[in-house]
Amino acid sequence: MNEAQAICALSALAHTQRLRVFRALVVAGPEGLTPSVLADQLDVARNTLSFHLKELSHAGLVSIEQQGRNLIYRAEFAHMNGLLGYLTEHCCQGGVCEANATSRTYTSC
User: Fold this and answer.
1) Residue 6 and residue 86 in contact, taking contact as beta carbons nearer than 8 Å
2) Which of 1, 33, 85, 91 has a CA that sits 20 to 30 A from residue 97's CA?
3) Do the beta carbons of residue 9 and residue 61 sit within 8 Å?
4) Helix axes 46-58, 16-28, angle to 10 degrees
5) How many domains does the chain have?
6) What 3-state DSSP class applies to 109?
7) What's the Cα-to-Cα distance from 67 to each of 33, 64, 76, rounded to whole Å?
8) What is the pLDDT of residue 61?
9) For position 72, which CATH number holds?
10) From CA 66, how far away is CA 68, in angstroms rounded?
11) Looking at residue 92, what is its pLDDT?
C-alpha cells in the first residue's frame, strides 16, 4: 500500500455512516450483505447507503459481487490489513512491539 491508497481508505472511513457500514460488513464476514439488509440493520436510507458503499468500494475497502438480481457487498480484509500494515510499518522505531491483549494497544519492549 502506498500513501495515496492509505489516505483514500482513511478518508472513506472518516465518516460515521461509512465506518458503520464497513464494520457491519466485517461482522458479516465472507458471506457479505445485500444493500437492503445493510439499510435495515443500520436504519439508513437506501440511496444514502448506495453513496457510502460507492465511496468504500472506490477506496478498495469493499467488494461487490452480482448474485442473480442481488448485489453482495463484502469487506476487503486484505486491503484493510494492508492499511493497518502501512500504518504500523515503522512501529516502535523498527523494534519488536508487543500487543497488549486487553487494551489492544501497542507497547514497546
Assistant:
1) yes
2) 1
3) yes
4) 80
5) 1
6) coil
7) 11, 10, 18
8) 97
9) 1.10.10.10
10) 6
11) 77
